[in-house]
């Protein structure tokens, strides 16, 4: 099979326009060519295919039966080519358009909101659409461009993952809970307490913990800790105001911390990554790098 040249594509486009308008003159006007040039393109295409594609009369040009079928199939192919060309131009051009991002709500409110605000100010042609949820949404089903996820590790997938930030977890409890149940001084003493986590395996490796409450919402888990339900394992960034104002107390900070988790940025692995996605990825990495956290790609 011989390669399709740019001139071949122009011949196909000329044919489609002639059939659509029923006129060589109208097609020539839209292409910015002469009527004779369009006629030669049609003749060359028919010669290549070995079948007549149109019937010409002084007033009207109509497709043959083969021509009508060919027009339908060629049209779909040209649309795909134009979409690919537009995607390439958009990927290399100025960042603009809608950017659909999912992020965990508690971390978005406490840590990411200022970064998002600076991104919106720096990229006014990008419309940021946020889906705040702890669920791991499917990229295709939810038409996502980027996902921000908190995890200790990521499952293998076709997505590109950039580790943006290490998230320090800690044990926290309310003063009322500690007064009522006692203040644990060693990790082993946690087995006698009600432990609240966001994951089934959130305990330190040296001590096996059986959580009393498992919640997939950090903000709700914080509320339980504030109400004195138990000792919660939470990102310290989420409860920093509570710690500084004495509503919560950090425990066992001089011993082994819970397993480290990280904030990951994920996007599809494609050589034609849209400019708006590249702009968001690079901006997030730069902003968090200023905090002394180097990003990693996996």
**If strands are numbered along the chain, what order do they take across the biggest sheet?**
4-3-5-12-6-13
- The gyration radius over C-alpha positions equals 30 Å
- Unreliable stretches covering 5 or more consecutive residues: 200-206, 292-298
Backbone structural class: alpha/beta
Helix content: 40-55%
- N-to-C span: 39 Å
Strand content: 15-25%
Mean pLDDT over the full residue set: 83
- Morphology call: rod-shaped
Biggest sheet character: 6 strands, mixed
Q: Total strand count, please? A: 13
Compute the number of helices.
9
**From N to C, what is the helix and strand string?**
HHHEEHEHEEEEHEEHEHEEHE
Provide a descriptive summary of the structure in words.
The protein is 42% helix and 21% strand. The chain is an alpha/beta fold. A six-stranded mixed sheet has the order 4-3-5-12-6-13, with helices on one face. The protein has a five-stranded mixed sheet with strand order 9-8-10-7-11. Strands 1-2 form a two-stranded antiparallel sheet. Helix 1 (6-21) crosses helix 2 (24-31), helix 1 (6-21) crosses helix 3 (35-49) and helix 1 packs across helix 4 (65-92). The longest helix is centred in the N-terminal third of the chain and has 28 residues, at 65-92. The radius of gyration is 30 Å and the shape is rod-shaped. The two termini are 39 Å apart. Mean pLDDT is 83; it is low at 200-206 and 292-298.
